[in-house]
UniProtKB/TrEMBL annotation, chain A:
Keywords: Nucleotide-binding. GO terms for molecular function: GTP binding; GTPase activity. It comes from Pelagomonas calceolata. Coiled coil: none annotated. This is Uncharacterized protein. Residues 182-192 have a biased composition (Basic and acidic residues).
From TrEMBL, chain B:
It holds the Pfam family UBA_7. PANTHER family: FACIOGENITAL DYSPLASIA PROTEIN, LD03170P. It comes from Pelagomonas calceolata. Residues 425-441 have a biased composition (Pro residues). SUPFAM superfamilies: DBL homology domain (DH-domain), PDZ domain-like, PH domain-like, UBA-like. Residues 553-593 form the UBA domain. Residues 219-340 form the PH domain. This is Uncharacterized protein.
């Protein structure tokens, strides 16, 4: 799991979390990433040709965390190149367009592929994007939530355009990854990022 | 200038610029400072070479493509530019993606385990030349992402252009081209994954040794379990075909013992079940459907069983059995195809399999032995066609008794009659063997005579012995190693050195005891029969071998009796292995030869032989100690 230390201060180690965005073409993956990182939205943005990933530093539950948000370069459509895209990812956001049923139906394929070839213990989140276009809805909330529950993922309806729930997705993912990492830590192992125990001796 | 072409050229320039940063800011310093930043220098250097080896070609390809795009944009034919560069793009990006798939994980692992390496990489990120502060991961994956990005970019471009626009036509053509490039890159990586998986699987099945450790760099073509048909029956084996060699090994002794007892192997799926037995150079390998096919004919029904395949090579010839006729056919095809490719790659003459002449005989005369493959060696490739010779430079011998294959799990066509294969060996290859010393003129009588021959077990038994009725016959002698042309096939071997021999095992054991000797004297009796070449067509059938193996129970009793007399079990086993068949002979042998068995180099052989003798089928003593000898073989 990509949950690496990058800082130098032992008490407040900065962790890096790789998050990948998966989903059909045109569902708004790049818009979600762009909204989260730069807080901007381009309605007719060019297809993803930018850098391999974007970074954003956040502080979650008092711990600094650097999110590496890997936006797709189209390689996920190729059987052998896709694992290079999501290799080492700690979390994945499965995005579908709630105004396009076909994009929702393809999510199951991604869940299956991640289970088969993805990193072990990857944290999932389902994002029903473009929720600002309520009049064109083709996928009901219950459908999306049920799918997310079956896949062991959290579910959010998002709008990159209106900045609805975009931040919450990432915060939830980071929290879940941190929780999972804590749970996987062997018992008795000292937490480097934890505050030193307070001395209780009165003579101290 | 065409706007679409301009945009494409801009993105291409941006990529070229980023890759230059990757090369100058990361790869160059990492290579230069590798000894200082990593304790695992060879591994790091190898990883960097694998990962970034094709980077220069990608950079050059990018720059050239961008320049041509700009130039082509002025004439509004930029799609042609894409098509012209299709092969180059697929090759350079494909090579890079291959290296990335192989080595990026290694570099990441080394980085996470080495503080110095990680700190160095982070320091590189801070260099002023890295103006966008891109990370190594971000830059290194760019060439992998580029082909699919072409598809994304051109697809998006096509959507936004009006269909009547010339740019739309260009974008459509370029999109198809980009899809082909991305698919080619993807398939390249897919093939590499399959190759690595296949190689790892093949290596995992064999007990680790220096040779299997080096298989990682080979290209596996096919691997799988087979049966190797030996003199004493089928042996569970595993074959791994690479693009330059064919390797095979037998199941470990424990599983073989269980199989012989009719029990299932202890753990069929267990790793390292097989011991690498031999590696054959693929350019010397021919795979035949039947022995007659090796004469150049189409093969016939009298050949091998449909589920069997005959492997003929200069080093070793043998029969393998597959699960079914279809599986055997698949193996045959893939071996023949790979061998032909190998010969073509080495510009070696692809001599037809008829270089080995074989004759199939079957019928009542074959008695208990079902088939008996004799021969096949020498240089099968460079031999001039049409030449004939009585005996070839090396002879191997394998036979198989169907009556002993009760536990054989393979489907067998009903009513398959016993069969015998005999092969005439090919004439010598060029360059011709060194001239032999003039033969001694021996009286052509039935008197005994003695010849002194060199013993060279490392290069295989130059001496091929045929077990007759109570005697040991010299079936053939390899002139190049034995240098005794006066010995003719059919001559009866009476003693090795001063010791009389009765069985083939006797001879083998004695030769092995004399492995340090340069030569051994053989006492022979000239056969009364005319010394015709038994391998020639039309010659009378050679009497098939009759098993002379002692009864396993009697051997066990013999050993127990000797042990009860106070002798060591190992010595007793060794004496039995040396051919002693009664208590007195065993005791005498122990008194003469007994010693600290732990230090005896023959102990392993004696154990093995004894273990085989306890089973209904013994091992092939000719196979057990033979080592491939390539360098010293003038015919290889």
């Amino acid at each position: 799991m990509a949950f690496a230390s990058s800082g130098t201060e032992p008490a407040q180690r900065c962790r890096e979390i790789k998050i990948v965005l998966l989903g059909d073409s045109g569902v708004g993956k790049s818009s979600i990433a762009q909204r989260y990182v730069t807080d901007t939205f381009r309605p007719h943005g060019e297809s993803t040709i930018g850098a391999s990933f974007m970074s954003k530093m956040i502080v979650n539950n008092g711990s600094p965390c650097k999110c590496q948000i890997w936006d797709t370069a189209g390689q996920e459509k190729y059987h052998s190149l896709a694992p290079m895209y999501y290799r080492g990812a700690a979390a994945a956001i499965l995005v579908y367009d709630m105004t396009k049923k076909s994009s929702f139906e393809k999510l199951q394929k991604w869940v299956d592929e991640l289970k088969e070839r993805g990193p072990e213990g990857i944290v999932l989140c389902v994002a029903a994007n473009k929720c600002d276009l309520e009049e064109g809805r083709e996928v009901e909330v219950a459908e999306g939530a049920e799918f997310a529950q079956k896949s062991g993922a959290d579910f959010f309806e998002t709008s990159a355009k209106n900045d609805e729930n975009v931040g919450r997705i990432f915060t939830t993912l980071v929290t879940n990854v941190q929780r999972k990492s804590e749970a996987a830590r062997p018992a008795g192992e000292a937490r480097l990022d934890a505050a030193p125990p307070k001395r209780t001796s009165c003579c101290g | 200038m065409d706007k679409a072409a301009q945009e494409l050229a801009d993105t291409e320039d941006r990529l070229a610029s980023d890759l230059q940063v990757l090369s100058d800011v990361f790869v160059g310093p990492l290579r230069a400072w590798a000894p200082q930043v990593s304790a695992e220098l060879p591994r790091l250097e190898q990883t960097l070479e694998r990962l970034f080896g094709p980077l220069d070609e990608v950079c050059a390809s990018c720059g050239e493509f961008a320049a041509e795009l700009r130039e082509a944009g002025a004439t509004a034919t930029w799609a042609e530019c894409f098509e012209r560069h299709e092969t180059q793009l697929a090759r350079s990006y494909g090579a890079y993606a291959l290296g990335y798939a192989r080595a990026w994980q290694d570099l990441a692992a080394m980085r996470s385990s080495s503080v110095a390496l990680d700190a160095f990489a982070r320091a590189c990120e801070l260099q002023p030349a890295n103006q966008r502060h891109l990370t190594l991961a971000s830059l290194a994956i760019m060439p992998v992402q580029r082909p699919p990005r072409y598809v994304l970019l051109l697809g998006e471009l096509g959507k936004r252009l009006e269909k009547a626009n010339a740019d739309a036509t260009n974008a459509c053509r370029a999109l198809e081209c980009a899809k082909r490039v991305a698919k080619a890159v993807d398939e390249n990586v897919e093939r590499e994954h399959a190759r690595r998986a296949s190689t790892s699987r093949a290596a995992a099945n064999f007990k680790k040794c220096a040779e299997t450790e080096a298989w990682g760099a080979l290209n596996a073509v096919r691997d799988g379990p087979l049966l190797r048909i030996t003199k004493h029956g089928p042996v569970d084996a595993y074959a791994a075909l690479f693009d330059d060699r064919l390797c095979y090994g037998d199941a470990n002794m424990k599983d073989r013992a269980l199989q012989k007892m009719g029990a299932a192997p202890e753990s069929p799926g267990k790793e390292e079940r097989y011991v690498l037995h031999r590696t054959l150079k693929l350019e010397n390998v021919y795979c035949c459907r039947s022995a007659t096919e090796s004469r150049g004919g189409a093969g016939d029904a009298r050949g091998l069983a449909p589920w069997e395949l005959l492997i003929v090579s200069a080093q070793k010839s043998f029969v393998l059995g597959a699960e079914s006729a279809e599986a055997a056919a698949a193996w045959r095809d893939v071996i023949s195809d790979a061998a032909s490719k190998r010969r073509a790659a080495l510009a070696v003459k692809d001599a037809p399999p008829r270089a080995v002449k074989a004759f199939v005989k079957r019928g009542a005369e074959t008695r208990a032995t079902d088939f008996d493959i004799v021969g096949l060696a020498g240089d099968l490739v460079a031999r001039p066609s049409g030449a004939r010779r009585d005996l070839g430079p090396k002879i191997s011998h394998t036979s198989h008794t169907l009556a002993q294959t009760k536990t054989m799990p393979l489907p067998r066509p009903p009513g398959l009659a016993p069969q015998t294969y005999e092969a005439e060996l090919p004439p010598p290859s060029s360059p011709p063997p060194p001239p032999r010393p003039p033969p001694l003129q021996l009286p052509d009588t039935n008197d005994d005579f003695v010849v002194t021959v060199p013993v060279d077990l490392q290069r295989g038994l130059g001496l091929e012995l045929r077990n007759g009725a109570g005697t040991v016959e010299v079936a053939a002698l390899a002139p190049d190693s034995v240098c005794s042309p006066q010995v003719r096939p059919g001559d009866v071997l009476l003693s090795v050195g001063d010791e009389f021999v009765q069985t083939t095992e006797d001879v083998v054991a004695k030769l092995r005891q004399r492995r340090a000797d340069a030569a051994v004297s053989l006492r022979l009796r000239r056969s009364a029969a005319p010394s015709t070449n038994p391998f020639m067509p039309g010659s009378p059938l050679i009497s098939p071998p009759v098993s002379q193996e002692p009864d396993a129970a009697s051997c066990e009793d013999l050993i127990q009796n000797v042990v009860a007399m106070g002798f060591g079990e190992h010595d007793a086993m060794k004496a039995v292995a040396a051919g002693r068949r009664n208590v007195d002979a065993v005791v005498n042998w122990i008194l003469d030869n007994g010693g600290p068995v732990e230090e005896d180099p023959d102990l392993a052989f004696a154990r093995r032989l004894q273990a085989e003798q306890q089973s209904p089928r013994g091992s092939n003593p000719f196979d057990s100690g033979r080592q491939p000898h390539v360098a010293g073989n003038p015919f290889a």
